[in-house]
Structure formats: C-alpha cells, structure tokens
Amino acid sequence: PSRAAGTFVVLQMNLCDSGWARGCFTSGHSIDEAVTKIHKYAPDVVTVNEVCHDDVWATDGWGKLTQAMADLYGDAHIYADFVPAVDRRTNEALRCVNDQFYGVAVIHHDGGSDVHYGWYHSQDTTPEERTWTCVTAIVGRLTSCTTHLSIHRNVAMAQCHELMSTLASASWVEPDVIVSGDFNMTANPSRPYNVRGCVPKGYHRLSDSALQQVFYTGHVTWLNGGYARMHWTDHPALYEIFRV
Fold first, then answer.
1. Could you give the CA distance from residue 18 to residue 98 in angstroms, rounded to a whole number?
2. How far apart are CA 235 and CA 229, in angstroms?
C-alpha cells in the first residue's frame, strides 16, 4: 500500500526459524523472505516471533532482519531488541538447532533505547517458557510490544491477560501502545478462549484472520493494512498502517 507522510507502519511476522518445527522450517528461507517484506512495506516497527539470535544480531554486526531496517533508515537510527524463551529443562535460554538463542524480537528506528521484557508466570508444560518484550517506539508517545503465546489456548489467554495487565500498570508504558504478535488464539465466538476476551477496554484489535493479532490503544488511528502470504513460513506477514 502507498504510505502517506506522518503514518506509522507495523510489520508482524512469525518466521518459524528455530529448526525444531519441521512442518514449517525451511533452512532460513523465511528470513530472506522477511527481508523482502521489510524492504517493501518500510515499517517503523518490525515484530518477529520464532527467530534465532543471529537473525537479529550476527557475530559481525546486524543480522539479516535488522540489516534490512538499516538499509531503509541507516545504521545509526536502528534499535534491535531480542529476548529468548527459556528452556524449562535447563532453566537457560532455549536454543535453535543451530545453537543460537531462540525467541522474539522488536526492531525499530528513531525511537528510544528503553526496553522492558519478562517471562510469564502462567506457562504450559512444554519445554518452552514464553516471553514478551516492549520498546519505546516514539519517545513520550508510543510503546511497541511483541509476544508469542502458548499453543494451549487456556494458557495463552492467561498470558494475554497477564501482559495487558502489565501494560495497564507499568510506569514505563507510554500514553499509547501497540502490541503485535502470535497470540495462538483466534476470534471465534463459538469456541472457548476467544481472543476478543483479552482485548482491554480502550483498545482495538486487528488480525490476520488467524493467530497473529495487533492490539492498539484508542488514541491510535488505523488507516490501512492487511496481510500478505509468505511462502517459507506457515504464517502470513501482517502489516498495519496507523496515525499516532
């Protein structure tokens, strides 16, 4: 979509790059495809789930995803925040098959370096203990967050409420908030754990018509957006254009 001056673009992707999920792992091809999406949509914030540390921070500098943002805005203007999931079997960071840490990330430009993150009190019995992270996307105005919730929807709902409660009470949260991620819940009133039940008062919700969601506060104005098919991961790219 065309982008007007003064808009704020969020790009959310689950890239299935751990190597453990064989049904969607494609030896890093999803990362290259994500680079093309970043170049196409020129987002202000990129939120990604199921990525490895070197997708964001490589041994010699930026990883491919962060470099794609630097291609648009320049190295000096880019911030990258990566937070690993925890392996409950070892109580250490969960790792991809390439031994890099596995987790979620927010990449943005010209915001602030303020970062906050945590691991949920509510967790399922799988090895992966889920996490969330937030950054100051616009100093004095906007906090941007991402998360990847449990595959067990009752736990995902508890985690969602936990995150939104944190955002309602934390002193570091800016006046407006955008949360984008893989919530592992859908908006289906006929099934339990409808994701709409987690949308706080004063927030609006967008989605890819499946598991990826964007929650945003009422003072943020949605202008346009949608989702685009990706060939190398089992989730589409979800992009939304706002005025903040």
1. 8
2. 8
